[in-house]
Specification:
Blueprint lengths: L2 H10 L1 H20 L1 H19 L4 H15 L4 H17 L3 H11 L5 H17 L3 H17 L3 H17 L3 H17 L3 H18 L2 H17 L3 H18 L2 H17 L3 H24 L6 H20 L3 H15 L8 H17 L3 H17 L3 H17 L3 H17 L3 H17 L3 H12 L5 H113 L6 H19 L1 H13 L3 H8 L5 H11 L4 H8 L3 H15 L7 H6 L2
Length: about 700
């Protein structure tokens, strides 16, 4: 790649890189600037907890002691250990299982691996001396988790199996399930997903039978994760959604973002990038809100919170990479890596390896081959150090693709074959299929079409291999075991429910007689009250009808007065008109104007007054009439109002100073506009509006 091309690429992403470094600088400065508020916050919290401890009893005292262990961790280990010793006995006595796990998480909160191991061993030693075996089991499991994170699988297996033996010895169901789950997780990290699922289902069966709902959700999440790894995407989504439903109900923020993140990863595999980005952005939003909440309290966010942001950024980068949007992919991938490589980061080797692999593939697509080779080499070294064969295979495929782009076809073939070999060892179906596809494409370039065809056939038919069928049988067996265990739990629950209902039945029969007697009394009172209400209603109805009748009479009087007034006005107008010859010529125009105003007043002012009064009595009449029949003329609307008042055509004609025949003609027009049938009465219809 030329220097000019490199320089151009750097300029292209300049603003993105600047933003990333500003963001990281903010995290670093935030860490420093938050120390004082965090110290104040912890001091206040410790004072509050120690004050509560002086009056707390029973389970509340055990939980308060546990919180004090957490508050002193990282500040004063001796004080933290002192409270640990008090809390351990109480937590075991009250069988607060999850709190026992948390107790060991709290006591091992320190920056260095060796110190974490030392503090856990001290705490486990105390439990062993005091014969707090359940608490000891939780400590051994937590120590195994520490070794698993450090990539020491042998020690991790040893501690988890030791915890399982102790749990079996004392018939501690919670410890059995926790140890089985962790053994499964260790197999999972070595890419032995089928073996991992066997342990997950065993743990799930115990948790279901004992009603450990939170642990059931954890098992469902892990099974979904394993299903993803072996390519059963729809089954993976089903299990993760079951777990997510529980986390949302309990507002478990950490597991909510993990579940959304995993759903996003599954949809990437299914090439549904819109859904993938949707779930990844939900996870990122949850993580950012969690950090913001801590900042609002003046509490410094822990490094693991920022690691969550890094996970989200790396996954979003993968979505953009899959869509061919390499600029956006590079921005999020770089941001993720910077956070993981920060001085106070708690990112694992695998976490960093994922970012190296992602960036290597992105640089390849951006034609930055030197950077791509460097990143893929780092990814290979990271995954090799923890013997993650599935991820090593993916890295080899990335290197093989780079070799092809640089014309090194033989090296590409070797990388693809090595990747396929590793994928086959761990039964990674997706990577096995990818390996055959890559190898087939290389042989086409090498013009060895026979081998190209052989590998393409293997690529196309991989789902029908005996291995796949065997694997499907194992998974079906595990799922059947899970469903059987779930059914047994439901049967036990139904038996308990029947007994409970039988106990309730006796009480119900005793209460039924009293209830019936009381019901008779209540019914009598209700009927009596009902009769009184009916009488009151009838009186109110009668009063309203009388009031309406009175107002209708007033309206008739009003419309009659309009008639009388109009007659007077008309008579005056006629008199003036008949005596026009006696007026001076200069006054004729003025008289005519007066006559016009008198007739206009006769037509408009009086009717407006009537319609205003009519609308107050019959509030919705004009509203309904205009809504249903908007093409009625003002005269027709007035006739409709007078018909509602019960006036006949003759009376209406007298009021409007028209012949009754003209009113009948107008009524016919109104009937047509209202769409009335021959047998429908216009007055009755208008009365109903």
């Amino acid at each position: 790649m030329s220097k000019q091309a490199v320089f151009s690429a750097i300029l292209k992403f300049k603003w993105r890189l600047i933003f990333t470094f500003v963001l990281l600088s903010f995290y670093v400065s935030l860490s420093a600037s938050s120390l004082r508020p965090l110290s104040d916050y912890l001091t206040s919290k410790i004072d509050s907890l120690e004050s509560r401890l002086s009056v707390a009893k029973g389970e509340e005292k055990a939980l308060t002691l546990s919180r004090l262990v957490n508050a002193y961790s990282g500040i004063d280990f001796e004080k933290s250990l002192e409270y640990f010793n008090q809390a351990a006995a109480l937590l075991e006595r009250f069988e607060l299982n999850r709190q026992m796990t948390n107790l060991f998480v709290y006591i091992s909160k320190t920056d260095t691996k060796d110190q974490r191991v030392k503090q856990l061993e001290l705490a486990i030693g105390y439990c062993k001396r005091e014969k707090l075996t359940k608490c000891e089991i939780h400590g051994i499991i937590q120590l195994g988790i520490q070794y698993l994170r450090d990539g020491d699988l042998e020690k991790a297996f040893g501690h988890f199996n030791h915890a399982l033996d102790l749990s079996n010895r004392i018939a501690y169901n919670y410890g059995q399930a926790a140890a089985l789950q962790r053994i499964g997780r260790t197999y999972h990290d070595t890419c032995n997903y089928i073996q991992a699922m066997k342990y997950y289902y065993d743990a799930l069966s115990i948790n279901l039978q004992n009603g450990y709902h939170e642990e059931v959700a954890v098992n469902q999440y892990l099974i979904g994760l394993a299903e993803l790894e072996i390519g059963n995407y729809h089954s993976a989504i089903d299990y993760i959604l079951r777990a997510l439903e529980f986390w949302e109900q309990t507002n478990n923020v950490a597991n909510m973002w993990n579940s959304n993140e995993l759903l996003g990863n599954i949809y990437i595999k299914m090439n549904d990038y819109a859904k993938s980005l949707h779930f990844h952005r939900i996870a990122l939003d949850i993580r950012q809100k969690n950090i913001n909440r801590r900042l609002a309290l003046g509490v410094e966010p822990e490094p693991v919170n920022f690691l969550g942001i890094a996970y989200s950024h790396n996954n979003i980068a993968e979505v953009y990479y899959s869509q061919g949007q390499y600029d956006s992919a590079h921005y999020y991938a770089i941001s993720s890596l910077r956070i993981k490589e920060a001085e106070n980061s708690v990112a694992s080797i695998r976490d960093k390896g994922n970012s190296y692999l992602n960036l290597g593939n992105i640089y390849h697509k951006m034609n930055m081959y030197d950077s791509a080779f460097i990143m893929l080499a780092k990814a290979y070294a990271s995954f090799s150090s923890i013997n993650n064969k599935s991820s090593i295979a993916e890295t080899l495929y990335g290197q093989g693709a780079l070799y092809l782009s640089t014309g090194q076809n033989e090296k590409a073939l070797h990388a693809f074959e090595e990747g396929l070999k590793l994928a086959t060892e761990v039964n990674d179906q997706a990577n096995i299929k990818s390996g055959y596809k890559h190898i087939s494409e290389v042989y086409v370039l090498l013009e060895d079409y026979r081998k190209a065809l052989e590998n393409h056939i293997l690529y196309s038919g991989i789902k029908d291999t005996i291995f796949s069928k065997d694997r499907a049988n194992i998974i079906d067996e595990l799922q059947l075991k899970y469903e059987t265990g779930k059914r047994q739990q439901e049967i036990a629950f139904q038996k308990e429910l029947v007994l409970k209902k039988q106990r309730q039945l006796h009480m119900a029969v005793v209460g039924l007689i009293s209830f019936l007697a009381l019901s008779v009394i209540v019914l009598f009172l209700i009927l009596k009250t009902r009769k009184q209400q009916i009488r009151i209603f009838e009186k109110e109805k009668e009063s309203l009808l009388k009031d309406l009748e009175l107002k209708n009479k007033e309206l008739v009087c009003n419309v009659t007065s309009i008639y009388t007034k109009n007659m007077v006005i008309n008579k005056v107008a006629k008199t003036l008109s008949g005596n026009m010859h006696v007026f001076k010529q200069a006054n004729v125009g003025l008289v005519r104007e007066i006559i016009g105003e008198l007739r206009q007043s006769m037509d408009e002012v009086s009717w407006k007054e009537f319609e205003m009064r009519f609308a107050k009595v019959h509030e919705s009449f004009y509203q309904h009439l205009d809504a249903k029949f908007p093409d009625l003329t003002p005269t027709e609307r007035r006739i409709c109002a007078m018909l509602k008042l019960g006036l006949c055509s003759k009376e209406i004609g007298a009021i409007t100073m028209t012949k009754s025949e003209s009113v009948d003609t107008a009524r016919s027009r109104i009937r047509k506009k209202l769409g009335l049938k021959q047998d429908e009465n216009l007055t009755d219809y208008l009365s109903g509006l």
